[in-house]
Amino acid sequence: MSHVHVLQHPLVSHHLCQLRDKRTRPSEFRSAVSRLAMLIGVRATDDLPTQPITIPTPVADAPCHELATDIGIVPVLRAGLGMVDPLLDLIPDASVWHLGLYRNEQTAEPVGYYDKLPKKGAPNVALILDPMLATGGSIDMVVRRLMRWGVEDIRVLSIIASQAGLDRVAKDFPHIKLFVAAVDPSLNEQAFIVPGLGDAGDRIFDTPQND
Ligand SMILES: O=P(O)(O)OC[C@H]1O[C@H](OP(=O)(O)OP(=O)(O)O)[C@H](O)[C@@H]1O
Ligand SMILES: O=c1cc[nH]c(=O)[nH]1
Ligand SMILES: [Mg+2]
Question: From the candidates 20, 103, 145, 203, which is the catalytic residue?
């Protein structure tokens, strides 16, 4: 479990309160997702390689360090879209590759419906964005797809994970890194995270559940 990072930060705790609250309106929910994604994004990128460069300031040359790796942001549709803008704010030169998955309501198994990753040109680092990691089935499918594409450094950024889902992904893929804001104890009969926050995609996009 050495690659699982559970954020400990007062701002994370604070924004999670608003995110979990069923009274939070969609606009506020989106803002909370965005703030949490930014906090997770900073943590998930704190060991990216840099290279030294010299920059002329108006006063003198300054030794600086710029990013020295190619980064792909991979939001899992739909809910992962809510985390894209804060990550692009942090890493404006990243590419964004979309993968579309939904969970079959009866089986909770992921079903892929959108994948336009090119055959070549995998980034060195992929940041998978999905606010919810429940059974872990969706992240499992995405990680396998990115491994087939040729990504070596795969990092999962989720806001809430279930303990079982997190354990499953960490065990099946010991080489990837997982960054989460909270780990919840269980899943209910519909494989929803308990206490969780409900359906993240529906709360982000203000769509009724089961629609
Ligand atoms: O770990 P798992 O058990 O696979 O569940 C997590 C997945 O379920 C949700 O997506 P959903 O199917 O609701 O699609 P949506 O983002 O379009 O709402 C969530 O955003 C994850 O992708
Ligand atoms: O609790 C859950 C589980 C899957 N997807 C969600 O959005 N929430
Ligand atoms: Mg959903």
Answer: 103
Token digits for 91? Answer: 């890493």
Structural domain of 26: 4-50+65-205
What are the C-alpha distances in Å from 22 to residues 12, 61, 184, 193? 18, 53, 17, 14
Q: What is the pLDDT along the chain (211 residues), one digit of tens a residue?
A: 459 999 999 999 999 999 999 999 999 999 999 999 999 999 999 999 999 999 999 999 999 999 999 999 999 999 999 999 999 999 999 999 999 999 998 999 999 999 999 998 999 999 999 999 999 999 999 999 999 999 999 999 999 999 999 999 999 999 999 999 999 999 999 999 999 999 999 999 999 876 5
CB of 78 shorter than 6 A to ligand 1: yes
Question: Which residue puts its alpha carbon closest to atom 7 of ligand 2?
Answer: 199
Cβ(130) – ligand 2 distance below 6 Å: no
Q: Is residue 41 part of a domain?
A: yes
Count of domains for the chain: 1
The reported pTM is 0.97
Domain membership flag for residue 58: no
Looking at residue 78, its amino acid is R
Q: State the ipTM, two decimals.
A: 0.98
